[in-house]
Amino acid sequence: MVFKIQAKSFISIITSKLILKMSKTFLKGGTNFPGKVALKIDKNILNTISKNYKVILITGTNGKTTTTNMIYNIISSTNQEVITNSSGANMFSGITACFVDNYKFTNNNVKYAVIEVDEANVKYITEYISPEIICITNLFRDQLDRYGEVYTTLEKILCGIKKSPKSLLVLNGDESLLGNIDVPNKKIYYGFNCAIDDTISVDLNADAKFCKFCKCNYKYNFVTYNHLGDYYCTNCGYKRPELDYHIDKIVEQSKSGSIVEINNNEISINQPGTYNIYNALCAYTVSRVLNIENNVIKHSLQKQNSSFGRQETINIEDKELKIILVKNPAGYDQAINAISLDESKINLAFMLNDNYADGRDVSWIWDVNFEKLTSLNVDKIMISGIRLYDLAVRLKIAGFNSDKFHMCKDFEALLSEIIKCDEKTVYLLATYTAMIDFRKFLYNRKYIKKLW
């Protein structure tokens, strides 16, 4: 059966689809502009093209793309129809383009849409869509020139949630900013019921150190990383909520992944680091809410493919380039912790940009624990990006021998240095636009088969 839609909506969809096709054919990308065109023709187009979808929104500072990818793959493995904005275009226009791209003029069965959304854009999406589930992964300082502090970021997200009071909220219970939030939505919390180590206090540079109700310092039964953990306030009694889904035991952590127990079910996660345990736990929680069986979830999490730029491995000549997106101190420190699990001799590459999508202010690099990397067996250090000299100074202060620095002013120089590395493994830590542009460069050089 054909949908009855307004002429304006029809023109909006057809025009956007044509631009999407041309963008994919000639530009190998361009996921935001077609959405902008669609919205220009019909500002309410998202309401039309999202019908018949059960929408799951994933937002938060870190882990959106990986968590979205995990949930999408789990649902896909059940043979249910599902779409996602896998390109990472998580603004209003990019999400609109995703729905346009998947829109059909015939009435199909109900499908799922697992959508990553930028924190500041939640309110635009919920203006037109009432999601089944809204997930919030965490709240860290990120792009201060755009978001402000973490409390401002939370308000931006809550502004969107308040437009969708019937959405189920899946929240990180270890995130102190997400407990007792004043919305009528039903809430499900996930988090750690076990300590990773003996840490019970947060670092000086941790983000949300003070009780959001009385402003006293939090105390912790344990800290997982940054300000996440089993928190409580001795002054007003505010504490972590009861967890519905939880990590009961960490069986093993290595450079290739983790083995954990979630609600007493042993799960293997093939991506390393504590932050990926959180991502997998969020995906597990959503999947159980959707009544997906444990064995299906377990099998999917064992064989997840890395999202582009998120610990993605690219073969360059005889080297293994592992690209890790870094964009704020909390995420950078977790990436460093994951790399620290590798006891072999390695090479390190760093890229720092200050474009709008990265955040103009790069002073946040001084809050990153680069010092921890100096204890690793590092053979070669390559530095690139718009702000390569700022990063070189930071690394020198961290304790690296500047004689080992290879300053790469363009992608050709960086690629050349990677190829000349004596050791096989190269970890590349890159900010957003640096990662995107370098991947395009590698795509054009035939080292990457699929750009998005």
UniProtKB/TrEMBL annotation:
Listed pathway(s): Cell wall biogenesis; peptidoglycan biosynthesis
GO MF annotation: an example: zinc ion binding
Entry's transmembrane regions: none
Record carries keyword Nucleotide-binding: yes
Gene3D superfamilies: Mur-like, catalytic domain
GO biological process, any: regulation of cell shape
Residues at which Zn(2+) binds: C211, C214, C233, C236
List of catalytic residues: D361
Family matches, as InterPro entries: Folylpolyglutamate_synth_CS (IPR018109), Lipid_II_synth_MurT (IPR043703), Mur-like_cat_sf (IPR036565), Mur_ligase_cen (IPR013221), MurT_C (IPR013564)
Family matches, as PROSITE patterns: FOLYLPOLYGLU_SYNT_1
Domain Lipid II isoglutaminyl synthase (glutamine-hydrolyzing) subunit MurT C-terminal: 325-435
Keywords annotated in UniProt: ATP-binding, Cell shape, Cell wall biogenesis/degradation, Ligase, Metal-binding, Nucleotide-binding, Peptidoglycan synthesis, Zinc
Every Mur ligase central domain range: 58-235
EC number: 6.3.5.13
Protein task: The lipid II isoglutaminyl synthase complex catalyzes the formation of alpha-D-isoglutamine in the cell wall lipid II stem peptide. The MurT subunit catalyzes the ATP-dependent amidation of D-glutamate residue of lipid II, converting it to an isoglutamine residue.
Subunit structure comment from the entry: Forms a heterodimer with GatD.
PANTHER family with a match to the protein in the record: LIPID II ISOGLUTAMINYL SYNTHASE (GLUTAMINE-HYDROLYZING) SUBUNIT MURT, MUR LIGASE FAMILY MEMBER
HAMAP family on file: Lipid_II_synth_MurT
Family: Belongs to the MurCDEF family. MurT subfamily.
Protein name: Lipid II isoglutaminyl synthase (glutamine-hydrolyzing) subunit MurT
